[in-house]
Each structure stands twice: as structure tokens, then as C-alpha cells.
């Protein structure tokens, strides 16, 4: 590694890659926190969200030039696809996961894998297998600070994931519904006994998680394009981030994501690990964290029940 | 309950197998009569690599549809059987087995990835199925058997031209490489680095990525630090679009060089202005070969997307097989597979949409390489080259 | 057609061996592992490298492949022992990806993405078992299925098998009864990995070439599905599971509609099968319905209801 500006460039790259992981991890951690199961279909909901965002944006924007109006169109398209994804997420929960709530751990896991198969192949069937470009709603020319370059898109990713984290945290900590969510996550049976509508809470969790996925999908698609399998590996890495940060912990997902992005970048750039092995870095970190602190960096240790 | 269920299951499975067994008799009969002529296609139709297989299979379907519209082969309709390999050896084997023993195809186009092609080629050889791969560039493939051909130049040839051209014609001394860990990209990287250094150049940085990666900023930043004169990116479109876009966002102003993967017009949709200036090796310009402009238009009209260069190779492969059948089939009786193979092997200066196709004695494509540069999001052919030993020979 | 059926049966056999191994880890011991593809890959590459580069006899490489995979199994098992359920699934999935990642990048040994070609055909008593002729190989694979079936069946009825099952039912109680849970869990991983490694060895000899993208995470998922759809813990059932999944994966080709229906069709059907099976028959086709002791005794007895209520109430108090 050479100059100081190269170092800062790597740092920025890692930070924004981490922002992307964090963006997806927030939705993951939300659902896992309440239901305690890996929603393998989360990545596919993200993909559907990105597709609907793309279609809506292309439909509405006409030939608007860059400017506030185009940004409004973009956010409207994003809002609608958040709603679409929320409905989709809730329906999936009703059909494929709800009947399995009392089953073994394995059942919802395999059911989720089944759902992700169905969704990604339906997308490939209806929308084709090619990658589609999601045009930036703003001029994405990089800003330069000395030799270090950063694009508005990278800044947007970091800002949105931070805002999302804060909003989620406030919602869960400060509202009645958030309280009900925490109660449900702790103990479904007793929460129900105490008058919490567990079904409603779980539905809402899925709705929020899926809406977050749509946001993440659209923001990622601006750089990474839209294609039917876009959710697969992104979902896996984001899950790693969520576990590293402490699954179910909103701040943890953010920190885990950023940490993972930085580690992958610096592991390659500083330690000279071949880039081909960067998945090894991610999963190596995961296993290490699970060994040293199984509850994740910010997770609370759960007492083993006897 | 459990036992009954198990019994039921066994019955169902047995019935299924029987049903399938009966079908086999039918299939055998039709093949005898040669009421229809079948050619196959094997490629990834689902999964992460589905787009490559889809594009190429559409070219084969187009070739067959056109042939049938023109009266078929000796008046017999040609049927195309597309089988999904999912990009894996296992499914590829199932696919060739089905093409060989159920459909009894005479020839096939595929497979797409070298790994799959190498695994299924011995099977095609044993069943006397002419196999023409449109995209497997691995050096070992043609040597597997006399029925194995390809309409894509081997890594070795494309890379020799590329390495020599970069060093001698472009005068590049310091080259960086960013390639994806798949057989296509790594094969090109390995061969290009050999020929480039043999012609006096120096590889100053080698960075890799994984198939499916979307973020290449780390590698590009590292490469930027080495300050190379050019960066060679012999990858598929999805990765190259990302690399070009992110290089621009990192404010890198450096010459990009690429290979035939770049000849997929999708790159211009995905990377737009970032493609300008890129120099790449590829099959000789479509507009230079007669009759090929029509192919691109027909393909786009039928499928709504433009074909890549591998699709052109597929289209030529399908037509070469059908021509060979046309030449050798008597009109009655069974198809003489050995004769079809010989007719394919004898292909010389076939004016295809991918350029002039001739096969070497081992079934490899005797190819010349076009060199292209992108100007205003349009590829412009700036030369046609081949190699004599290690020396670059300019043809045009 | 026949030779296509034979191919399916050969792959069913290979997968059945993988599933038998997975069954020891997941079905018998109750550990949710997604690493079988990694052990499979190690076995295949051990055979490929030893036969091609060192001229070792194929037959000798089978146990070696198993041993290498078992060593990897111990490596996976030891650090992940403290993990349970989904965490274990993700960690083992990570290990599987790491194995593939290393194979993909260790070019000097594995040729990376180029794969290793030209694996010699196995010979026995001077006869070559030609994979393209199928019959010999079919016999070979199913002989191994039978051997592993018998061995593993014996194993589950042994002292070790009972210990493993005790761990599945209640790890803490098993520990309290004096079962060395750590040792047995690692053993389970090693046995499962050994079996998968042997399957990999056979697969390499069958395809005569190996490439890293054969051994993706999807293989692990498929194998897990075989165990679950067949019936966890039941050795015959998981072999059945392997057959069912193979038929489900190949049904468009078997029915001759693979070229006429959209290619995504079979994947969608497969996804539907998974979802519907989990909803309507989660214990698998041949599995027996497990008594859920938690439900029987009532989970509320596990700790005092009061304690649990208090924990919930605390949410309302703390900020």
C-alpha cells in the first residue's frame, strides 16, 4: 500500500461497502430478532423491491433532467415499492412461515429457501435474466478531495443507512408497537398472555423488514444493477454482518456491516490477501466472533435455559 | 401409517419409472424414421449464469426457425432441444445423457462453460454427436475427440494476439490485470500474461475477484497505486460494466483493454459513456462479414435483446451442423453420424455471422482476431490480426 | 433413455452417500450443518490431485479422501461446537464457502477455476470401470451406499449412536448423565465428513474432471433437503430422500418436457415442494412424527411463569 491518499480511498471504499451490508443487515436483524429464524428469502424480497422501484422510476420520470423534481419522483417510486415489498413480505409470512411457527427450527429455514427459489425464478421468468441499469436520479460525478474520490451515491448509502438505523431504534425503543415487538421477541407465549396481538406484531415486523429490504435493494441497484439473483450473496453477507454485530440488535447490524466492509477492504489492501479470498475473510470473521462472543459484538448474552 | 405411505411412494416411483420406460420405446422409433431432425443446446438457463445460456440458446432457436421456414433440412423439420446445465457438471451430464439417449440428437451446440464442456465432451464423442461449443475457450477441449469442435477461438490464440498487440502496437510497457476467478477470465489472463511478457511488457499488478462480485473499488484503488499504463479486464459483461463505472467514480483515467466478452452490446446499456476508448479483441466485425447485419436485426426483432458474440458463435454452430446434415442426409433412412461429423470437420471459410469459420484438424477454430475500439458507445474495428508462432501478423 | 435413467441412479447413489453422512450430523445428533458440499469437494479434489499429479491408485484415494474430509470435519466441528441451531447453520455454511474459496484460489495445487481434467478411469482386476458405460459405476456407487448404510446403521445402534441421540434430545441432560458431549459431537462431524469425502472421491472418478463450481452451497442445501424430506434420523429414509430429490430435479427431462416448458419451471416446482412439505409433512416422507416433549410437558414449566412475565414487564420499565 502506497500513499496516504490511497489509504483514505481504501477507507472510503470499505466504509461504503460496509454501508451497503449494513443497509441489508438492518432488515435481516429486524426479522431475526423477533422470529429467531433466518429469512433466506429476504434477499429475494430485496430483489423484487429493486425491480418494482426500477419499473416505477422509469415509468414516472419521463425525460426529467437532474434536479429536485427527479429526486421527488425517485423517492415516490421508492415509497411505492416499499409498500409493494411490505405486502409481499407479509403475504409470504402468512403463507409459508406462519403455519410453521411451532415446528422445529429446520422447517421455516427450508421453507424460506423454497420461497427464495420461487421468487428468484419467477423474476427470471417474467423479467428475463439480463442485468438492468437503474439510472441515478442525480448527477453521480465523484467529488474529489485531493486524490480521494467519493460519489454522491456513496454518501447517500451511508446517510440513508444511518438514518434508517436511528429511525428503527427510536421506533423499537420509544413506541408502544416497538415495546410489543420486544416483548414478542423475548417470549411469544407470555407476550400473548399479556394481551399482545402476536400475529399482528409479527406481520408488522415482516412489513417493516421487507420495506427496508426494498429501500436497500433500490439504493444498491443504482450501483450494482438489477437482476434476478441479486439478492442471493448480498443476503448472505448481510446476515454475517448482522450476526457479527449481534443479531436482533439494530445498532449492532450497522456496526457489523461497516466492520465487515472495512475488514474485507483492508484485509485485501493492507494484508495482501488475494481478493478472491475475501469471502473467506467475511466468514472467518463470523466464525471468530461466534467463538469469542457468540451473541455478537453488541448482543446481550442469553442465559442458557435448562 | 408410515408403512402405508412408504408403500404408496414406492408404487408412485415405480409407476413413474415404468411410464418413462415406455416413453423410451417411442423415442427409439422416431429416431429410426428420422421424421424430424433434432439438434441440442446445453447451457445455463437458470441460476447465476442464466443470462449467458439464454442469449446463446435464442441464437440456436433462431437458426433452426429460419431453417424450418425455408423448408427445413431436405424437407424435414429441425427440432431444437434446449437443456439446462445450471452451469454445473452434474446437470450438464444429465443434459447430454438426455440429449443422447432420449432425443438422440445428431449434433449439439454447447456447453457454455469450459468445465461443463470438458466433462460432457467424451459422452458426445462416444454417442457420435457433433458438439460445437460457442464459448468454451479452454485449451484442452478440442483434443478430447473428433466430434468436438468450437466456434470460439481458444484462449491461446486470442491471448497471443492480445498480448502481442498490447505490447507492440499499443506500445504498453506496464500492464495491470483485474480478472474474475472463472475459467474464461483466468484462462485469458494466464495466456495474455505469457505473451505480453514475452513481447517485452511487464505485468505490474494482478488483482482478482469472485464471480458475482459487484464492488471492484478495492482492486481498482490498489491498481491505481501501481500507476499502470493500461488495465486488462478479460471478464464477462456484468463485471466489466461495474469495473468501468467504478473506475470512473474513482476518477481513474487509464486505458482499459478487454476480450471477446466485451462484444456483448449489453455493455453499452450498462456502462454507457464509460465504455468509450476501451480496446478489445473479438470476432471480426459483424458488418464486415456478409449476411450478418441481418442476423443482429432478426435476433433483436425476435427476442427483444441484441445478441453477444457468443450468440453469433452459437448461430454459426447450429447452421454448420444443419448444413452438414443437409449435405450428407439421403432423405430416407437413418442419419449417418460419421458422415455428418466429416462434413462438419470439412467446414472451410464458412461465411458465418461471427466471421469466416474454418476448423483445424483437431476441431479448434482457425481464427483471426479483430481488434476494436469503442468510439461514442460504438465498437469500431481498428485491425484484424493473427499470430504466426509468437509473432503478430496484421491482416487488415 | 436407459442410460439417462442410469445416470440419475448414479447421482442418486452419490447423493445418498452424502445424505447418509448428513444424517449422522443432523438427523441423529441434531446439529444443523450446511457444510456437506465442502467435505464433498475435499474428497473430490483429494482423489483428483492424487491420481493425476501423483499417480496414486483410485482405490487408495477413497479412504484418503475420507480421512482428509474427516480432518476438515474435526476442524469445523471443534470451533463451532458451542453454536446451536441457526448460528451453527450459518457458521458451517461459512466453512463450506471457505473450503470452496480456498480451492478456487489455490491455483498451484487445484488449478483454481480451470479445474483438474484427465482423472484416470478406475480399474479393478484388470478391468476398467468406464463411467460412460454406466453399469459398472452404478454397481460401484450402490455398493458404497450399501456399505455405508450398514456401517452407519450399526453405528447408530452402538454406544456412540445412543450418545448422539441423547445429545439431540437434550444436550444438557446428556452431559449431566456423563456423556462427553464435546467429543461425541466432533465425532459425529468427522463421521459425516468422512462419508461425504468418500462420495467426493467417487464423484471425481465418475466425472473424470473436477471444477470448483460443482460444490456450491446449493449442494449442501440439497443434501439437507434429502435428509429432511426423507425423514430425519432414518437411514433408509434419507436414501429415499435422495431419490425423490433427484427425480424432482430431473422430472422435466424425465417427462420429455424440459425443452418446451420454461427452464425456471422446475426450480419453481422444487421451491413449492419444499414449502408444501414443510407445512404438511415436516417430519419427512418416511419420518415418524416426533413427540415434542416441550409441548407435552408444557413449555411453561421449564421456568417459572412468574419469572417470564417479569422479564416482559421489565421492557416497559427500562429505557
List the keywords:
heterotrimer; A: 306 residues; ABC transporter involved in vitamin B12 uptake, BtuC; two-stranded antiparallel sheet; 11 helices; globular; C: 319 residues; mainly alpha; 14 helices
Model description:
The complex is a heterotrimer of chains A (306), B (396) and C (319). Chain A is an all-alpha fold and 306 residues long. Chain A has one domain: Orthogonal Bundle (ABC transporter involved in vitamin B12 uptake, BtuC). Chain A has helices at 4-35, 42-61, 68-97, 106-127, 152-174, 176-186, 188-193, 198-224, 231-245, 250-269, 278-292; strands spanning 143-145, 148-150. Chain A has a two-stranded antiparallel sheet. The N and C termini of chain A lie far apart (52 Å). With 396 residues, chain B is α/β, with parallel strands linked by helices. Chain B has helices at residues 2-33, 50-69, 89-103, 114-126, 155-169, 183-198, 217-226, 237-249, 266-271, 292-303, 309-328, 337-345; strands at residues 37-43, 78-84, 107-110, 130-133, 148-150, 174-180, 202-209, 230-232, 255-258, 279-282, 350-352, 355-359, 365-366, 369-375, 378-388, 391-394. An eight-stranded mixed beta sheet of chain B has the order 7-6-8-9-10-14-15-16, with helices on both faces. Chain B is globular and about 65 Å long. With 319 residues, chain C is mostly helical. Chain C has one domain: ABC transporter involved in vitamin B12 uptake, BtuC. Chain C has a two-stranded antiparallel sheet. In chain C, strand 1 and strand 2 form a beta hairpin. The termini of chain C are far apart. Mean pLDDT of chain C is 86; it is low at 293-300. Chains in contact: A-B, A-C, B-C.
List unreliable stretches of 5+ residues of chain B: 21-33
Q: Would you identify the CATH architecture of chain C?
A: Orthogonal Bundle
Biggest interface:
A-C, 59 and 53 residues
* Cα shape of chain C: globular
Roughly how much helix do the residues of chain C carry, as a percent range? over 70%
| Poorly predicted segments of chain C | 293-300
Q: Strand sequence of the main sheet of chain C, in spatial order?
A: 1-2
Total separate domains of chain C: 1
Instruction: Report the portion of residues of chain C in β strands.
Output: under 5%
Global Rg of chain C: 21 Å
Report the end-to-end length of chain C measured between terminal Cα atoms: 69 Å
- The structural class of chain B is alpha/beta
Amino acid at each position: 500500500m502506497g500513499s496516504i491518499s490511497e489509504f483514505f480511498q481504501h477507507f472510503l471504499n470499505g466504509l461504503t461497502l460496509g454501508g451497503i451490508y449494513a443497509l441489508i443487515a438492518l432488515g435481516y436483524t429486524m426479522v431475526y430478532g423477533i422470529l429467531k429464524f433466518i429469512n433466506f428469502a429476504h434477499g429475494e424480497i430485496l430483489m423484487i423491491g429493486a425491480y418494482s422501484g426500477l419499473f416505477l422510476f422509469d415509468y414516472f420520470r419521463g425525460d426529467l433532467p437532474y434536479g429536485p423534481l427527479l429526486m421527488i419522483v425517485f423517492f415516490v417510486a421508492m415509497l411505492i415499492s416499499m409498500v409493494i415489498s411490505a405486502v409481499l413480505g407479509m403475504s409470504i409470512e402468512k403463507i409459508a412461515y406462519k403455519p410453521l411457527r411451532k415446528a422445529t427450527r429446520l422447517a421455516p429455514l427450508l421453507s424460506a429457501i423454497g420461497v427464495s427459489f420461487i421468487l428468484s425464478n419467477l423474476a427470471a421468468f417474467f423479467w428475463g435474466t439480463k442485468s438492468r441499469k437503474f439510472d441515478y436520479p442525480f448527477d453521480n460525478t465523484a467529488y474529489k478531495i485531493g486524490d480521494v474520490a467519493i460519489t454522491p451515491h456513496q454518501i447517500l448509502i451511508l446517510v440513508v443507512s444511518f438514518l434508517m438505523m436511528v429511525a428503527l431504534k427510536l421506533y423499537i425503543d420509544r413506541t408502544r408497537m416497538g415495546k410489543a415487538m420486544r416483548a414478542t421477541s423475548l417470549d411469544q407465549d407470555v407476550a400473548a398472555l399479556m394481551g399482545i396481538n402476536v400475529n399482528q406484531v409479527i406481520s408488522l415486523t415482516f412489513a417493516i423488514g421487507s420495506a427496508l429490504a426494498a429501500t436497500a435493494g433500490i439504493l444498491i441497484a443504482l450501483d450494482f444493477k438489477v437482476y434476478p439473483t441479486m439478492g442471493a450473496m448480498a443476503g448472505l453477507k448481510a446476515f454475517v454482518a448482522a450476526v457479527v454485530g449481534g443479531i436482533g440488535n439494530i445498532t449492532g447490524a450497522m456496526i457489523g456491516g461497516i466492520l465487515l466492509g472495512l475488514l474485507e477492504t483492508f484485509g485485501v489492501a493492507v494484508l495482501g490477501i488475494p481478493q478472491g479470498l475475501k469471502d473467506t475473510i467475511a466468514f472467518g470473521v463470523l466464525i471468530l466472533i461466534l467463538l469469542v462472543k457468540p451473541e455478537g459484538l453488541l448482543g446481550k448474552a442469553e442465559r442458557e435455559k435448562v | 401409517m408410515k408403512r402405508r405411505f412408504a408403500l404408496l411412494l414406492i408404487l408412485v416411483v415405480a409407476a413413474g419409472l415404468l411410464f418413462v420406460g415406455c416413453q423410451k420405446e417411442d423415442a427409439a422409433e422416431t429416431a429410426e424414421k428420422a421424421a424430424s431432425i433434432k439438434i441440442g443446446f446445453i447451457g445455463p438457463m437458470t441460476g447465476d449464469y442464466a443470462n449467458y445460456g439464454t442469449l446463446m440458446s435464442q441464437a440456436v432457436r433462431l437458426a433452426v426457425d429460419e431453417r424450418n421456414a425455408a423448408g427445413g433440412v431436405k424437407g424435414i423439420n429441425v427440432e431444437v432441444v434446449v437443456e439446462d446445465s445450471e452451469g454445473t457438471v452434474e446437470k450438464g451430464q444429465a443434459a447430454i445423457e438426455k440429449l443422447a439417449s432420449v432425443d438422440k440428437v445428431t449434433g449439439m451446440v454447447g456447453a457454455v462453460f469450459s468445465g461443463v464442456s470438458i466433462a460432457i465432451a467424451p459422452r458426445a464423442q462416444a454417442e457420435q454427436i457433433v458438439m460445437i461449443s460457442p464459448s468454451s475457450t479452454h485449451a484442452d477441449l478440442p483434443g478430447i475427440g473428433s466430434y468436438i469442435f468450437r466456434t470460439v477461438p481458444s484462449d491461446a490464440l486470442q491471448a497471443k494476439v492480445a498480448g502481442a498487440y498490447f505490447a507492440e502496437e499499443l506500445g504498453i510497457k506496464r500492464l495491470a490485470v483485474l480478472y474474475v476467478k472463472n475459467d474464461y477470465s483466468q484462462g485469458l489472463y494466464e495466456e495474455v500474461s505469457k505473451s505480453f511478457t514475452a513481447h517485452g511488457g511487464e505485468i505490474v499488478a494482478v488483482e482478482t475477484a469472485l464471480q458475482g462480485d459487484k464492488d471492484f473499488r478495492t482492486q481498482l484503488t490498489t491498481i491505481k497505486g501501481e500507476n499502470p499504463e493500461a488495465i486488462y479486464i478479460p471478464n464477462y459483461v456484468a463485471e466489466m460494466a461495474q469495473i468501468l463505472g467504478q473506475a470512473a467514480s474513482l476518477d481513474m483515467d487509464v486505458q482499459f483493454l478487454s476480450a471477446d466478452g466485451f462484444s456483448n452490446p449489453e455493455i453499452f446499456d450498462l456502462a454507457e459513456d464509460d465504455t468509450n476508448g476501451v480496446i478489445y479483441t473479438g470476432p471480426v466485425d459483424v458488418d464486415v462479414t456478409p449476411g450478418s447485419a441481418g442476423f443482429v436485426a432478426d435476433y433483436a426483432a425476435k427476442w427483444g435483446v441484441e445478441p453477444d458474440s457468443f450468440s453469433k458463435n452459437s448461430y454459426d454452430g447450429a447452421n454448420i451442423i444443419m448444413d452438414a446434415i443437409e449435405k450428407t442426409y439421403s432423405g430416407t433412412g437413418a442419419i449417418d453420424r460419421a458422415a455428418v461429423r466429416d462434413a462438419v470437420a470439412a467446414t472451410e471459410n464458412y461465411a458465418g455471422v461471427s466471421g469466416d469459420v474454418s476448423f483445424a484438424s483437431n476441431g479448434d477454430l482457425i481464427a483471426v482476431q479483430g481488434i476494436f475500439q469503442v468510439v461514442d458507445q460504438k465498437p469500431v474495428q481498428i485491425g484484424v490480426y493473427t499470430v504466426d508462432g509468437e509473432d503478430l501478423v496484421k491482416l487488415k | 433413455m436407459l442410460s439417462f435413467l442410469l445416470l440419475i441412479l448414479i447421482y442418486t447413489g452419490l447423493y445418498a452417500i452424502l445424505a447418509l453422512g448428513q444424517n449422522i450430523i443432523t438427523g441423529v445428533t441434531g446439529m444443523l450443518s450446511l457444510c456437506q458440499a465442502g467435505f464433498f469437494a475435499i474428497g473430490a479434489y483429494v482423489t483428483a490431485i492424487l491420481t493425476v499429479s501423483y499417480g496414486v491408485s483410485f482405490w487408495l484415494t477413497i479412504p484418503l479422501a475420507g480421512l482428509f474430509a474427516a480432518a476438515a470435519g474435526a476442524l469445523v466441528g471443534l470451533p463451532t461446537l458451542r453454536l446451536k441451531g441457526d448460528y451453527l447453520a450459518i457458521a458451517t455454511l461459512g466453512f463450506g464457502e471457505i473450503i470452496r474459496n480456498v480451492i478456487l484460489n489455490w491455483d498451484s495445487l487445484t488449478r483454481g477455476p480451470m479445474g483438474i481434467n484427465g482423472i484416470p478411469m478406475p480399474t479393478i482386476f484388470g478391468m476398467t470401470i468406464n463411467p460412460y458405460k454406466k453399469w459398472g459405476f452404478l454397481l460401484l456407487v450402490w455398493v458404497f451406499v450399501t456399505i455405508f448404510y450398514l456401517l452407519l446403521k450399526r453405528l447408530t445402534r452402538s454406544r456412540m449412536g445412543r450418545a448422539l441421540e441423547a445429545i439431540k434430545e437434550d444436550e444438557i441432560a446428556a452431559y449431566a448423565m456423563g456423556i462427553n458431549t464435546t467429543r461425541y459431537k466432533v465425532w459425529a462431524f468427522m463421521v459425516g465428513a468422512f462419508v461425504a469425502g468418500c462420495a467426493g472421491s467417487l464423484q471425481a472418478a465418475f466425472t473424470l474432471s473436477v471444477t470448483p463450481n460443482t460444490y456450491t452451497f446449493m449442494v449442501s442445501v440439497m443434501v439437507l433437503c434429502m435428509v429432511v424430506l426423507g425423514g430425519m434420523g432414518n437411514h433408509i429414509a434419507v436414501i429415499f430422500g435422495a431419490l425423490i430429490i433427484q427425480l424432482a430435479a430431473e422430472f422435466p427431462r424425465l417427462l420429455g418436457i424440459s425443452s418446451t416448458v420454461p427452464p425456471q419451471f422446475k426450480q419453481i416446482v422444487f421451491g413449492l415442494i419444499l414449502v408444501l412439505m414443510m407445512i404438511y409433512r415436516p417430519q419427512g416422507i418416511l419420518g415418524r412424527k416426533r413427540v415434542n416433549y416441550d409441548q407435552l410437558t408444557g413449555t411453561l414449566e421449564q421456568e417459572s411463569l412468574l419469572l417470564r412475565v417479569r422479564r416482559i414487564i421489565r421492557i416497559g420499565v427500562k429505557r
